[in-house]
Design a protein that fits this description.
5-stranded mixed beta sheet; mainly beta; 7 strands; 158 residues; single chain
């Protein structure tokens, strides 16, 4: 979804955005632990002061992933807060502000899909777990310690 900058009033504009899960799959193709993105929704508010635009809100992503400790498949909704300040792209080459919360627009419009996908890619945890207390697998017999002790009795290797 693209929003023209001039259509954003100083008082703000609320928008709901549904992002194609294929865009997330493409952006996060190197994440082998993520099996599927089912849906990505964002409720955002954009405010404008001259050519500076502030976008804030919440992103919810339905995802199917393999737990990094026990390898069980997990369906979950991951939530991310978004707060970005978008400035006009400088016309002259040179150093630009290198801040995760600052971005640039072309002076005409903002691509909210791209903004959301980039934010999810940066905010996605490196390690996805079924539960923070997941006990993982036995390195000897492969038993899942969340389901009980292993067959080989070597729990210290988990």
């Amino acid at each position: 979804m693209k929003v023209t900058i001039q259509s954003i009033p100083p008082s703000g504009r609320s928008v709901e955005v549904v992002v194609d899960p294929g865009l997330l799959r493409t952006r996060l193709a190197d994440r082998l632990d993520i099996e599927r993105f089912a849906a990505c929704r964002a409720e955002l508010t954009a405010e404008r002061i001259d050519q500076t635009v502030v976008v804030r809100g919440e992103i919810a992503v339905d995802v199917l992933f393999d737990c990094s400790r026990c390898a069980e498949a997990v369906e979950a909704t991951l939530r991310f807060l978004l707060h970005m300040v978008l400035l006009p792209r400088p016309s002259r080459p040179g150093p630009v502000e290198d801040d995760v919360d600052t971005g640039y627009h072309n002076g005409r419009q903002i691509d909210l899909d791209r903004l959301i996908v980039d934010h999810v890619a940066l905010a996605m945890p490196d390690v996805l777990l079924c539960d923070p207390s997941c006990r993982g697998l036995c390195l000897t017999c492969g038993a899942n310690f969340n389901e009980g002790p292993c067959r080989c009795g070597d729990e210290r290797k988990g």
